[in-house]
Amino acid sequence: MIRSAAKALIARDLRMLWRRRGDSLQPALFAVLVAMLFALALGGEAQALSNVAAAVLWLAVLLAGLLALDTLFRSDAEDGSLEQWLLAPVPLAWLVAVRVFTHWATTALPLLLVTPLLAELLHLPREQLPVLLASLALGTPLLSLLGAVVAALTVGMPRSGILVALLALPLYVPVLVFGAGSVAAAAQGLDPSGALLLLGAGLVMASLLAPLAAAAAIRIALG
Amino acid sequence: MNPVVRWFHQLGSPPYFDRFAARWAPWGYGLGTLVMAYGIWAALFQVPADYQQGDSFRILYIHVPSAWMSLFVFGLMAVYAAIALIWRIKLCEILAMACAPIGAAFTVITLATGSIWGKPMWGTWWDWDPRLTSELILLFLYLGIMGLYNAIDDRRAAARAAGLLAIVGVVLLPVIRYSVVWWNSLHQGQTIRLLGESSIDGSMVPPLVAMLVGTKLWFIGSLLMRARADNLHRESGKGWVTALVEVKR
User: Distance between CA atoms of B163 and B145, rounded to whole angstroms?
Assistant: First the structure.
């Protein structure tokens, strides 16, 4: 039952996404534009850029994920599918977890794939790239899970734009600190594994607890 | 029925809580002001200057109690929110949401006094070190909870949603509490311990205790007053509120 529900939900989400496949490129495009803006604002000088490249890339990915949060539950809340989730004979938290996973795979994963390209644009030192990719691979699902709680809290509101950002960003700070911190440690020749392990531990915790919290929030929002 | 249990059930009734809060809030404010007045006086005139920091350490008597309160109020808010979510007690929703602005105010005081203290001691108003940053995030969480509470029209749903955010935010509290232990920080380590030997001089302690107790009492007064206002607002269509207003006229 649980597995077939997950399969059906993933198949539906992917089919919906395929019908509007142009939209799925938008987060990646946004990240490219943010990176470009930073590069131009910093004057385009290679040395200045390579010092801040890791931080800029982390911010670009984080902001792109923040803008994508609104699509996590909103269309389902508007067309009533979310009410069907409540009535479904499988736990709501499970459906939330499956949705967060497909959402991450369709919005954050493309970002991860363009990161090497962006890193080259921003003159990120080559030896920092594996650490950056590892920290993003552990950090972006964590951001999606935390963001899911906030998106669920605001799903009942007609326009939640800036409020989502105000609620989610404080929760994102620790992820950003450890994610960007791991690359900064690697840049100084230190061992980045401590920060990466903390991100991994956070990811394990969040994948257990965040779907439960998001499910509770959806129940509150839909009354 | 056990009288304590009965009292607890009575307190959940809006008219009973209104009378209770109206009776006890002035006591919280009054006693809090008295105790804090003693604490400030003793901190300014009784306590000797610090051997290292001179007179500027005296701001500790405002900074430390408000920092403790900023964490304590958040924890209390989460407890109220959990009770409200689990047992659907309306009064606990009101109390949880009444905690948020008070806690935010204590956080602002903590950050402001910390800055003022930091300028002569560290030579800078602000530093992005773990404890300062996490306290700033705490302020944003308080503001986010207040923002969410005001953004949803249905008061009960708003209180439950904001309460859930408070419970999620609780994971931050141990990070703030232990940030000076876990990371090398510009902020000084803890000097005051409830258990074991404090590294603060004995003569400096009594005003600090007075300030800690005083801020708690003031908080009780403020909490009851805010909760009473929200309670009256929510019940404004009911007969007992109208009757109360009539009596006042």
Answer: 8
| A171–B168 CB contact, under 8 Å | yes
Is the ipTM higher than 0.95? The answer is: no
pLDDT tens digits for chain B (249 residues)?
Answer: 788 888 777 778 888 899 899 999 999 999 999 999 999 998 888 887 776 777 778 888 899 999 999 999 999 999 999 999 998 888 999 999 999 999 999 999 999 999 998 888 888 888 887 788 888 989 999 999 999 999 888 888 899 999 999 998 887 777 777 766 666 656 776 665 554 555 666 677 888 899 999 999 999 999 999 999 999 998 888 888 888 888 777
Residues of B in contact with A173 (CB under 8 A): 133, 137
Query: What is the per-residue DSSP string for B53-112?
Result: TBGGGGGHHHHHHHHHHHHHHHHHHHHHHHHHHHH--HHHHHHHHHHHHHHHHHHHHHHH
Cα distance between residue B25 and residue B221, in whole Å: 4
Q: Inform me whether the C-beta atom of residue A195 falls under 8 Å from chain B C-beta atoms.
A: no
Q: Tokens 């003031």 sit at which residue?
A: B218
Do the Cβ atoms of B133 and A169 come within 8 Å?
Answer: no
Chain B contact for A169, CB < 8 A? yes
Q: Residue A180 belongs to what domain range? A: 2-221
Q: Which residues in A lie closer than 8 A to residue B168 (C-beta atoms)?
A: 149, 171, 213
